[in-house]
Design brief:
Length: 729
């Protein structure tokens, strides 16, 4: 009944009762439930024996100390725990540790005031006289209330008699009986109006109940100390100065105070990564200036300066997204943060596609020119490459727009488990973290990752196909492969680590920013640093074709042979693979030719006695070998024809004798070995200068009496075809 009444009073005072537990024997189960419900202030109603068990359970559950406050009855006997400690399974020191600081509540047996009471004695004088009269008899703590109760009866009867006398009613108090309701009401009213100062304090009744003084004591260092009192009559609480000792720096909280704390990105970290990002953007701007300034240089012009500008633009957009990734709730409002979720996703996606799309478009043009054997002439201008990049960006925009319309990114708050306060306060910290998420986040990310992955695979394919194109100004396949490798590895590692560090915003932001900085910087440096170095050291080296070198002992001919291209610009076309095959066949033919020439030379070096003439069949075989018609120039039809002085003489004259000639002028015969040897010494160098440049064997720019500079392939915009006629030896 007392508990129910107390519950009603607390509810009326807006005090929440978290839990109510009852027990008859073992209180430990109830104590565990109180702790599970995060109850901090416990009102206990039990006797001394059960109090010992309760505090033992509180010690086991660590429900004592600075975070808890126990309030129990204060009418226990002095040193009440000593009588029941043996009946519990708790050590004495543990029990006293759990009891330390509890507050006992009891009525005040005697007033602490020094005023005289209705009897003319002070409460102290009354206590002294009471103890003297009772002697060694057992004392009751209610003796002061009994004494004041007698005075209440006396004053009530006196007030009732005065009331009866003043009303001239013919009733006396002697006429009272328990069935006389009128006289009973007179007594009740007289008692409620009774008020005086007694040995227990102010004696006042309200609704038939005594309004007394409540005493508060606290268990401090194994003894109870009075810390204050509450006067129910005046509704005043008096706390004795500095008497209450709390085990913490402040009174215990009525429950665990949960303080939400936003995990934000560190300002120094954001400043450092922003500085690195600014340096990257400065580097990209320097590359842009270099590309625009040297756009008319042959090296830069052949590498598509407009596509280079797009690569730089994509890198700068990727750099710019880092600034947005570092802005969280500590810098911007919730509404602005939600907007940034969309903006930074768009910027990073478009920047990636712009950079790698332009790089892959350049490589596709090289692939289209050099890998299509049937293609005779095809002009692939930068406008078409811009259209390819625009198509890639259009796919990006379609994905992003559908994402924004169907399932836009929203600001979500993720709450983590509570943590103790680092400062030691009696509060718990619940970390919260902001995220950019939507309902179907996994699906949308899968679509974006799949598209970007296919784009990278396409770039790898183009890089592999154009790996043997030997003009550095055109061929970026090696650098594209390195870029794709670095970007792919870093993106995989960055995405995995970023997902595992969702609850650590500083680590997550650091990883994302470093991955973007690394990928963008590596890509830009691989594309532009080689061009910058080449342009500063040897501008023509990047546009010169690599010449073929052939030996009889050469192994793995096809893999080591470089493509022979004399002059290529953006509008040129070439049948590269056909030329390679034909070139290989011609070089084999040349080898045979060199052997036969060497054999003829050796024969010519013999003495006249051994070799008086060259057989007719030797001449015919040599003439068949040297009569080569390989290529036809489709543009102007010009022919490079070399003829020696023997073209004007029929082959039949070789080795034959004229009957009109005599032996005396035989030494002057035009077909004599001496004349032949003299002519070959002049014709052999001319022969080599005539046919070797057409197949890349000797630099065609070499001075020759038989080959003019205008006929050299080096001085033509389109690689011409040649007809080489060597005859009449």
């Amino acid at each position: 009944q007392v508990r129910n009444n107390l519950t009603g009073v607390l509810d009326g005072k807006d005090i929440e009762i978290s839990d109510t537990e009852s027990f008859s024997d073992d209180p430990c189960t109830s104590v565990k439930k109180l702790k599970g419900n995060d109850v901090r202030i416990i009102l206990g109603q039990f006797n001394e024996e059960m109090a010992v068990k309760v505090f033992c359970c509180a010690y086991d559950e660590e429900m004592y100390g600075s975070k808890y406050q126990w309030i129990i009855p204060g009418w226990y006997e002095n040193l009440w725990w000593e009588a029941w400690i043996n009946s519990s399974q708790c050590l004495s020191k543990n029990l006293l540790a759990a009891m330390e600081g509890y507050i006992g509540v009891d009525f005040e047996p005697l007033s602490s005031k020094t005023n005289k009471t209705i009897s003319g004695r002070t409460p102290q004088q009354y206590e002294k006289e009471y103890n003297a009269r009772r002697g060694d008899g057992q004392s009751s703590k209610f003796h002061g209330y009994a004494y004041d109760g007698i005075w209440v009866i006396a004053r009530t009867l006196q007030r009732a008699m005065n009331y009866l006398n003043s009303t001239n009613k013919h009733q006396k108090i002697e006429d009272f009986n328990y069935s006389n309701q009128k006289l009973g009401n007179i007594f009740l009213n007289a008692m409620n109006e009774t008020r005086f100062f007694g040995v227990t304090g102010d004696v006042v009744f309200k609704n038939g109940e005594r309004m007394g003084t409540i005493k508060f004591t606290q268990f401090q260092e194994q003894k109870e100390v009075k810390v204050g009192e509450y006067n129910a009559v005046d509704d005043t609480l008096v706390i004795i100065n500095n008497s209450i000792r709390f085990q913490g720096v402040e009174p215990p909280k009525d429950k665990t105070i949960i303080q939400e704390e936003l995990r934000k990105i560190s300002l120094p970290l954001y400043s450092i990564l922003s500085a690195l990002t600014i340096l990257g953007m400065i580097m990209a701007s320097a590359f842009l200036f270099f590309n625009i300034k040297n756009r008319n240089q042959k090296l830069i012009k052949m590498s598509s300066p407009y596509m280079n500008n797009l690569i730089i633009l994509g890198g700068m957009l990727s750099y710019a997204s880092i600034f947005l990734f570092g802005l969280d709730g500590s810098f911007v409002s919730e509404k602005t943060f939600e907007t940034l979720c969309t903006v930074r996703t768009w910027i990073l996606t478009v920047g990636y596609t712009t950079a790698f799309g332009a790089m892959f478009a350049k490589t596709w043009r090289v692939h289209a020119i050099f890998k299509n054997v049937k293609m005779k002439k095809k002009i692939i201008k930068d406008q078409k490459l811009l259209g390819i990049v625009g198509g890639m960006l259009l796919i990006d925009l379609c994905i992003l727009i559908c994402w924004q319309v169907v399932d836009p990114l929203r600001r979500t708050v993720e709450k983590y488990n509570m943590e103790p306060d680092p400062a030691g306060r009696d509060i718990s910290i619940r970390p919260i973290l902001e995220h950019c998420e939507n309902t179907h986040m996994t699906i949308w990310l899968g679509i974006v990752y799949a598209y970007k992955g296919l784009l990278m695979l396409f770039g790898c394919f183009l890089a592999w196909e154009t790996r043997n194109v030997s003009i550095p100004a055109l061929n970026d396949s090696k650098y594209i492969g390195m870029s794709v490798y670095n970007v792919g590895i870093m993106c995989i590692i960055g995405a995995a680590v970023s997902f595992l560090t969702r609850d650590q915003p500083n680590v997550q932001f650091c990883i994302v920013a470093l991955v973007i900085i690394f990928c963008s910087t590596i890509t830009l440096c691989l594309v532009f640093v080689p061009k910058l170095i080449t342009l500063r050291t040897n501008p023509d080296a990047a546009t010169q074709n690599r010449r073929f070198q052939f030996t009889q002992n050469q192994k793995k001919e096809d893999s080591k042979t470089s493509t022979s291209v004399t002059s290529v610009n953006q509008a040129s076309t070439s049948r590269l693979e056909g030329l390679q095959s034909e070139n290989h066949r011609l070089r084999m033919k040349i080898t045979e030719l060199d052997k036969d020439l060497e054999e003829v030379t050796m024969q010519l070096q013999d003495t006249p006695e051994k070799t008086t003439y060259i057989k007719q069949n030797h001449y015919q075989d040599l003439n068949d070998i040297l009569s080569i018609r390989n290529f036809t120039d489709g543009k102007d039809g010009e022919k490079a024809i070399l003829k020696n002085h023997l073209d004007q003489n029929p082959p039949a004259q070789w080795g034959s004798s004229d009957p009109s000639r005599t032996s005396k002028d035989a030494i002057e015969d035009i077909n004599s070995p001496e004349h032949i040897q003299r002519r070959l010494s002049l014709q052999l160098p001319i022969l080599h200068h005539a046919y070797l440049p057409s197949i890349g064997g000797v630099d065609a720019s070499c001075a020759s009496p038989c080959v003019s500079p205008s006929a050299s392939p080096r001085h033509r915009h389109v690689p011409p075809s040649f007809r080489v006629m060597v005859s009449g030896l």
